[in-house]
Amino acid sequence: NNPLNGKVALVTGGTRGIGAGIALRLAQDGADVAITYQHSADRAAVVAKQVEALGRRALAVQADSADPAAVRAAVDRTAAELGRLDILVNNAGVFLVGPVTELGPDEVERTIAVNVRAPYVAAQAAVRHLGAGGRIINIGSNVGERTVFPGLSLYSMSKTALIGLTRGLARELGPHGVTVNLVNPGPTDTDANPADGPNAAAIAGFTALGRFAEPAEIAATVAHLSSADGGYVTGAVVNVDGGFTG
Ligand code: NDP
């Protein structure tokens, strides 16, 4: 059962954590997969090998999401080298946290460039390649909707912006048969937010389930939204957060 057979996906920030989990799940479901990365060429190569071990084609592209030209080039290269583009997953993100008195314009610029402008630019570039049945899935955050700790103003602001982007794009691309959704992960065990980190117990305590997610649990929802079965879901904000928001 390979619901994504013949499809091509691009996952930004696919070397580790949630992005790697999504890349591998989409490959398991039958898609050829391109990933982007910023620094981790070695880890990108490992994920590409894992995709190939699943019998799919893989492509790893160095592309700093803060650079719009690099983001556009990654989208176009995916379509050129893998032959088409069906699924864009805007996953790469930066997590700059701290008091509002300490995070200044440079941090604001960086956060907006990677977390907001890059998804917009990638979607813009992808539109030319996506046909009917195409998918854009943005990765937001549970704290876009419920910000339980101080220090998250900037990060939360950037993730809340994705709600507007998702809804606007859904309206714009719906007539072309392309769906656009936002998946908001809850606390997920990754390098950025390790389940054994100093604040992990407090963070897990805000979920109904009392635990962190594994990247595969976020990826499962992305896979559903990517498949034909998810075809009537668009403009939605899907919380995969263990009840953090509820
Ligand atoms: P990680 O820090 O574990 O991994 C980040 C990934 O993004 C890496 O592959 C990294 O590549 C890539 N990346 C980072 N910055 C850039 C950039 N400027 N250009 C290109 N690639 C980049 O993050 P997570 O897996 O934890 O998070 C993934 C997404 O999920 C993010 O959008 C995050 O905001 C969101 N999220 C995470 C939660 C969590 O608890 N983990 C909760 C809610 C949302 P490289 O290895 O080359 O640096």
Automatic annotation (TrEMBL):
Please give the SMART domains that the UniProt record associates with this protein.
PKS_KR
Residue stretches making up the Ketoreductase domain: 7-206
Q: Which UniProt keywords apply?
A: Oxidoreductase
Q: Name one Pfam family in it.
A: adh_short_C2
The Swiss-Prot or TrEMBL record annotates one GO molecular function as: oxidoreductase activity
Keyword Oxidoreductase applies: yes
Concerning its family, UniProt says: Belongs to the short-chain dehydrogenases/reductases (SDR) family.
Mind telling me what this protein is named? Answer: 3-oxoacyl-[acyl-carrier protein] reductase
